[in-house]
Amino acid sequence: MLKRLQTRYALVLIALVVVVVLLLTLVHFTSFRSSLRNLSTAGAQAVSAEFLTLTRERGEAVADFLSRALVNPLYELDMRAMLELLRDIKALPGVERVVVFGTDGRILHDGLEMLPGYGEVAIDEAQSERLRSQQQALIERSDGDLYVTRAIHIGDDYLGGLRLQLSLRVAEQKIAVMEDEFGQLAEGGLRDTMMLTLLLTLILVVLVLLLAFFIAGRLARPLVKLAEKATHAGQGDYRALQRSGREDEIGTLEQAFNRMLNSLEETTVSRRFVETVVGSMKDGLLVMDPGGRVELFNRAAAGFFKTAAGRLHRRLFLDLFPADARERIAQAIERLGSSSQPQSLETECEEPSGRRIPVALSCSPVNIEGWHASGVVCVLQDISERRIAEARIRQLAQYDPLTGLPNRALFQDRLQQAIAVAERSERLVGVMFLDLDGFKYINDTLGHFVGDQLLAQVAVRLTSGLRKGDTVARLGGDEFVVIADMLKSYEDCAVIAAGLIDSLKRPFPVMERELFLTGSVGITIYPLAAEDTATLLRQADTAMYRAKESGKNSWCLYEKRMEIVNVRRMELEAALRRGLMNDDFELYYQPQVELASGRVMAVEALLRWRRFDAKLLAPADFLTVMEDMGLIVAVGDMVLTRACRQFALWRSRGAKLKRVAVNLSVRQFEEQDLVARVGEVLQANGLTADVLELEITESTLMRDPEQVIKTLRALKARGVQVAIDDFGAGFSSFSYLQQLDVDTLKIDRSLIQQVPQNADHAAIVVALIKMAQMLGKEVMLEGVESAAQLAFAREQGVDSVQGYRFFPALPASEIEQLLRQSAPSPGTELETF
After folding, report:
1. Quick count: other Cβ atoms within 10 Å of Cβ 815?
2. Which residue, 10, 19, 733, 751, has fewest beta-carbon neighbours within 10 Å?
């Protein structure tokens, strides 16, 4: 009871007050009463006003942040993104509700998972119209809540808005309680003090006066501290008031005030935090007053102009930009003033050194209290990297990244332009399609890295060999196309094509190697052959293939009849694919006769195609096309498998054959798993390696000597026999042959046909035979068809022969009948041995 302030004041003042001091104390405490009431009222009003201001600023800051963050989710109606944003905001203390509404004012999202408020009216039509016409948020206060409504725009388009509800009830209740306590404390204290003053005596005048001052001080100091703390809270200092240790009403008031400060600190966005965020922005932020001078800016803005912050303040905004950019910026600001719609443009900032930085400038109107007109807030964004990326994208869209040449899209555009110019000037345009001969082999053998470097060098040479104004483009792979405009005749184009071919003759140095390439060029002329780009390109491609068929390393002018050849080729390709699907390919076998014994000692497997019309075709009729189709490896593997299977069948039936010969294509010989595949086929058929002879041509040997030697050694290590087919038709050197692990040289039939009547041919064949014998190789003559050729072979000591003089290529069933004979049948002239 004695701890209560009211009781203590009564006991003290009753004991001390005397009549003598009544008037003096009355005057003193009358003044004290007025001061106390004014101080209490001022403190409560200051706290209330400051809290309302802070709550409003906080609501505007949150609404402004959400209006920017919700642009893309609202534009794309991304409900998940809206939910995440609204859920985070609703978690903030003091936020009662936050909703997003559309252009019709109805709720699109209320921050809840199940959207219970979807479709409800968030704002009425009048509020919606006000919101569309102004950039600032609408602030309303109703029933202890503060409502902040903000529009959301994308560019000039109004997307809708958001409505934020902040509670003021708790703070208002606390302020009201504090006001009541202030008033009660003042009234009670003064009433008791006046009663006590009546009991004072004259003797206690001095003591009463001192006691009165003491009491006034005890009452005023806590209130003054509360008022000072309220002022500090308005400045952002929310540290709690230091406790005095009192347990009376003053102590209770201190505790209530501390709780209020904690609540304010939790529910208010700090101004310093906002300043820190703005200061850390990468984009420059500037605020102009109505006179066009910079009033506010962040560090990034000063960095754009490479100037000290002090020199930026109060400068004319337009003076910060280069002279040639000011007019556009001024026009944008003028449009902003007339339409109140945000304006955006791309311009440049200029540093003191003269270096220019491309920037995106966005301007919006801003209303600042105390300004007679709207100001402008501008955001500067450095778009240097974006400009570089855009240039890179344009480069990639129009140019080949490997060679730097125009790609197909840019080629089409250049060709259309050349045609338009030629049409006006009555000149010709040449289109040349160039394909590199032998590039695929280099790319497959040495790898794509070497191939890429080779293509880059080819591009340089082709470009340097053109006239000024001509275009060379890369369509893909090893295909290039050239546009030569303003031609007088097709001969001009032929000269250019010949120059392109000549530019490729010199070796290409790549990774300490010298690589050689040739090119085949197809030519077509606008408007002589065609008038549209697609047809011209197709015609040049057709002529290029004719150049390849004519021996490569040459050019060919498009002719109409080439289309017919192409159609026939396509029909042949389709027939070949059907033949493979229907298993129309058969193996025939041509016997090889050993001259010493006169017996059939081996057979050569030869591929035949029984076409849909029952006509039987030899490999010369379709093998080249099959190679171009990429089927030669699969077909070659089929021949190897079937030949070994058939040989094993003959062996099981008692045939006394030494071996079976199988031809390998260039592509098949270059396969990395050739040796392993041969071993698998032999093992699958239960054959030893020495019964298989693989025949390769001289052209195969010359493609990559190092790899050829390596592959031949691997085959020999397995025990497989190897023969060089069509020997003498190529350019194999004696020293090179010495390095090759081959067993047999089969002299080409083109040389045998003129033997022995042609002395020159006979001399060549004799030299080849002697060379093979010196190297320790077996010798076989192909295409032996006459008795004179047979006698020549026997005279030169040839080991074996093959040809129509003895047997043509026969199906497997006839070979089996032949093998049952102990010697060749009559009529083969083997009985003359």
Report:
1. 21
2. 733
The packing angle between helices 533-549 and 561-582, to 10°, is: 70
Q: Is 590 left (phi over 0), alpha (psi -120 to 50) or beta?
A: beta
Please state whether the predicted TM-score (pTM) of the whole model is above 0.70: no
518-538 core/surface letters (b: 16 or more CB in 10 A; e: else): ebbbbbbbbeebbeebeebbb
Residue 244 near residue 271, CB atoms below 8 Å: no
Q: Please give the average per-residue pLDDT across 135-157, as a whole number.
A: 82
499 to each of 460, 463, 516, how far by Cα in Å?
14, 11, 17
C-alpha pair distances (Å), 319 with each of 301, 349, 426: 14, 11, 54
Angle separating helix axes 205-234 and 169-197, nearest 10 degrees: 170
Q: Starting from the edge strand earliest in sequence, which strands make up the sheet with 294-297, in order?
A: 294-297, 284-288, 375-382, 356-366, 343-350
How far from the centroid of its chain's Cα atoms is residue 671's Cα?
35
Sheet containing strand 479-487, strands side by side: 471-476, 479-487, 428-437, 518-526, 555-557
What is the CATH number that goes with domain 399-559? 3.30.70.270
Q: Across the beta sheet with 95-101, what order do the strands follow?
A: 107-109, 95-101, 157-167, 145-154, 138-142
pLDDT, tens digit, 9 for 90 and up, residues 458-500: 999 999 888 888 999 998 889 999 999 888 887 889 899 999 9
Closest among 618, 626, 625, 694 to 659, alpha carbons compared: 694
pLDDT of residue 366: 83
Residue type at 474 in one-letter notation:
R
Q: Which residue has the higher pLDDT, 546 or 339?
A: 546
Tens digit of each residue's pLDDT (9 = 90 or more) over 556-571? 988 877 666 666 777 7
For the chain, the structural domain boundaries read: 1-94+120-129+162-269, 273-388, 399-559, 575-817
Which stretches of 113-191 are assigned E, i.e. beta strand?
Answer: 138-142, 145-154, 157-167
CATH H superfamily, domain 273-388: PAS domain (3.30.450.20)
Could you read off the pLDDT of 279-305 as tens digits, one per residue? 777 788 888 888 888 888 888 887 777
Average pLDDT over residues 254-276: 67
Place of tokens 């109409």: 560
Phi, psi of 268 (to 5 degrees): -115, 135
**By the 8 A CB rule, do 701 and 724 touch?**
yes
- The fold of the 575-817 domain, in CATH, is TIM Barrel (3.20.20)
How far apart are the C-alpha atoms of 549 and 407, rounded to whole Å? 27
Element (H, E) at 772: helix 759-774
* Region at 529 (left for phi over 0; alpha for psi -120 to 50; beta for the rest): alpha
CB 730, CB 740: distance < 8 Å: no
Distance of CA 476 to the CA centre of its chain: 20
